[in-house]
Amino acid sequence: MKVLIVESNPDLGQVWKRHLERQGADVELVPGQEAAILALYGTAFDIIVLDLVLETGSALAVADFASYRRPEARVIFVTNTTFFSDGSIFAHSPNACAYVQSGTPPEDLAAMVEHYAAGL
Q1: Which of 42, 60, 111, 112 is the most exposed place for a label (fewest CB within 10 A)?
Q2: Tens digits of per-residue pLDDT, 82-106?
């Protein structure tokens, strides 16, 4: 299972990365839109864990590019805000499979990644 994590907070990203690697995932962690786009050019990821509020760039631009370049990749959106709390993210991003708070326990996020990757 190949996972791309797009997270501006390096500490949080590393926590998620370590949990996923313990499950046997091949994980790449990038901080923003530009690095995510470059990663998507070169690798066929199964799952993208994408923070909705990036310090550099737009999460929706990353999700949109992923739906074009890697349409099979599923996106788990994470956020610490109330943006899209009404579920409308699923209307804006056809590859969205989940929407969770960034405070979700890392083991729960890892279980979600494994669940959605199993369906591919």
Answers
A1: 42
A2: 665 665 666 678 898 888 888 999 9
In the chain the domains, ranked by start, together with CATH numbers, are: 2-118 (3.40.50.2300)
Phi, psi of 90 (to 5 degrees): -70, -25
pTM above 0.85, yes or no: yes
Nearest to 35 by CA among 12, 13, 11: 13
The C-alpha atoms of residue 32 and residue 120 are separated, in whole angstroms, by: 25
Q: Rounded CA gap, 90 and 109, in Å? A: 18
Q: How many angstroms separate the CA atoms of 82 and 79, rounded? A: 8
**Would you state the structure tokens that stand for residue 93, as one six-digit string?**
């991003």
Nearest 5°: CA angle at 51, between 18 and 1? 45
DSSP string, 47-98: EEEEESS-SSS-HHHHHHHHHHH-TT-EEEEEESS-TTTTTTHHHH-TTEEE
DSSP 24: T
